[in-house]
Amino acid sequence: MEVYIIRHGKTDWNKECRFQGAKDIPLNEEGRAAAVKLGERLKDIHFDEVFSSPLSRAYETACIVSGAALQSAVPELVEGQGPRKNELLTEISFGEMEGVPFDQWMNTDDPRKYFFEKPGLYVPPKGGETFESGCERTREFIHTVLEPYYKKNPDARLMVVAHGAILAALMCVLENRGIDNFWGQGLKGNCEETIYNYDGKSWTLVSEDKPQVNPYMKIIAKEATASAEQAANAVRKGGVVIVPTDTVYGFSGDGDKIRSIKGRSETKPFIQLIAKPEDLRLYTDDTIPENLLSKWPGALTIIVNDKRGGTTAFRCPGDEWLRHVISLCGAPIYSTSVNRSGKPVLDTEAEIVKEFGSEVDLIITDGDKKGAKPSTLVSIADGTIKVLRQGDVQI
After folding, report:
1. DSSP labels for 123-135?
2. Of 307, 306, 293, nearest in space to 378 by CA
3. What is the pTM of this model?
């Protein structure tokens, strides 16, 4: 018997990196589109039965993927048709903390912070469910639903559609793992499947989509241990990170990906951040006036003639943490404001996470930046000092 295990499509709370738990949050359009795409990929595979969590985001995903026709805007199917709801597949509850953004969940001394990193030490918020309880529920589902199905039809193929944590519990039981290894290879991505085989005696993992970069693990406080190392590692791997600077928050990382996220013109250059003022000598032969160089490190951007025959804007930021990130990268890193092109610059953590949380590899938080001025921008490319933008540093 073969069992396909699928996580539901995305919701707005997924996009905003909020813990959903047992809250009934519906799919968004991105989630529905992903379910349609998965359904197309699986359309030639026959499923004898489809089981779903009763929460709408899972149930609608199951309906779309399995090809069941929705009877109304609220997916209610004719009795005996379509996915079968099972309460045992309801997502693990997070109690009074449901709806809380990940950074607020993690930035605490409460043992809930161990949710992903050290699941064996996790203690749920008030009113929440333990991992042990989730495993007991899925064990009951296995013993009362899945395994009895084998006796009826050893060649059956089943689909199970549910949620990130309860599916982790299900796989934890199927693979006989302890709570310390609750997450196994990682959180399942939305609309990704894992396939198991059951021979009447034991369960075997057949295939598993590559685990996603955990979206809830990519929001890290600046003061967290090794935050600079994590930011630099993401940049070195060709990712996109949002980091606090000495002015506003900025995108750094792969330039093409940043342009795609922002909708930025390919001809519009980025500022490059350097770790030390003297590093500028590696990239230009221009003589930098002392009254400018003395402002570094600081919120001053200087456009110079670069050694490749063009011009480049450089800044040595005043933030020591950011200079450490640049140093770890071993080369200048791009910087540009956090906004869609033509839209206002975002200056609060909540706005940034909501707008870009699902599109970048890492967000380093350091409080809101309301009222922060951008860097002062000057050009010395023609041999004179021209102030192109008056910012935080007076010239």
Report:
1. -PPTTB--HHHHH
2. 293
3. 0.65
| Residue 148 DSSP SS3 | helix
CA angle 221, 224, 229 (to 5 degrees): 100
Residue 82 vs residues 49, 75, 270: alpha-carbon distances, Å: 8, 10, 52
Walk along the chain (395 residues) and give the pLDDT tens digit of each residue: 999 999 999 999 988 888 999 999 999 999 999 999 999 999 889 999 999 999 999 999 999 999 853 333 334 444 446 899 999 999 999 999 999 888 778 778 899 988 988 899 999 999 999 999 999 999 999 999 999 999 999 999 999 999 999 999 999 999 999 999 999 888 888 999 999 999 999 999 999 876 555 666 678 888 877 889 989 999 999 999 999 999 999 999 999 999 999 999 888 899 999 999 999 999 999 999 999 999 999 999 999 999 999 999 999 999 999 999 999 999 999 999 999 999 999 999 878 887 888 789 999 989 899 888 889 999 999 999 999 999 888 88
- Rounded to 5°, the CA angle 18-24-29 comes to 75
Cβ contact 61:9 at 8 Å? yes
Torsional sign, CA 338, 342, 345, 348: negative
- In whole angstroms, how far apart are CA 379 and each of 207, 318, 336, 373, 389? 56, 19, 17, 19, 10
How many Cβ atoms are within 10 Å of 71's Cβ, its own excluded? 13
